[in-house]
Amino acid sequence: MARIRIEDIQAEIAPDNWKLLSDTYENLDKELVFECNEGHKVYAPWKTIRQKRECPICKQNFKKLNDLTIIQKPKDKKRVLALDQATHISGWSIFDDEDLIKFGLYETTLKETEERINEVKNWLINMALNWKPDYIYIEDIQLQQHSKKIVEEPDNIVGVTTYKVLAQLQGVLIDTAYELKIPFRVVSPSTWRAHFKINGKTKADKKKSAQLKVKEWYDVSVTNDEADAVCIGRYGADKIKISNEIVEWGE
Predict the structure, then answer these.
(1) pLDDT digits (tens, 9 = 90+) for 174-219
(2) % of the chain residues with pLDDT over 70
(3) Are residues 42 and 97 in the same domain?
């Protein structure tokens, strides 16, 4: 069997965006220093990392923030439940002031649109009753850029169909928040992105920028939908804080 070289290890972990920081290799059981794809140092033998690229810090972050054990709301903080809603996969986050408490995805696989909307509604009711948010922040909907084809090609309804479904969902969620007597805000993507200076030429660029912003704030890796939900929640927390400061100053 050929002897394993440093270059061999580097080549094998590179596709996963891992790096080998050690400059010498002795055997499979000797501890090495790696850098995971999130920039954390990982101390483990090649035998372990070869089988599974696992970073203890990333694993702990994920477990800590995605454990759905209900956390009691502190009396001196305002809780925000934020949604980047959709009828298939919705991102969500929970904040106590500017502290990110939980985040995640809610997925529905039901076939009919009405069934999916009803399931998301019931999920929101369950989240509200368990987490007791003071405010709910919902991302506003918008026609996609490609919907301009509708003007040029009246028979082409690409964009409009999705917009109608999201409008129905948004209406149901707003009505649900109203019935639960929880104050809610609908915030446009351009508003919360401008608040955090999240830029990009394309939608993908903006999504990536949001992910990097969440990484900068909380040192956690999130999906596109989770990143948007976290940013919406952080935006809500910021606005509530500013509003409270104005009231206190006026008094």
Answers:
(1) 999 999 999 999 999 999 999 999 988 888 889 899 999 999 999 8
(2) 86
(3) no
User: Given the DSSP bridges, would you call strands 135-139 and 184-187 parallel, antiparallel or unpaired?
Assistant: parallel
For the chain, how many structural domains are there in total? Answer: 2
Question: Does 133 share its domain with 218?
Answer: yes
Domain residues for 196?
79-248
Tokens for 90, please give them: 């919705």
Instruction: Output b/e per residue, 191-220; b: 16+ Cβ within 10 A.
Output: ebbeebebeeeeeeebbebbbebbeeebeb
**Helix pair angle (113-131, 160-179), 10° resolution:** 30
* 74 assigned to some structural domain: no
Question: Do 31 and 85 belong together in one domain?
Answer: no
User: Do residue 152 and residue 215 come from a single domain?
Assistant: yes
Q: What is the pLDDT of residue 249?
A: 32
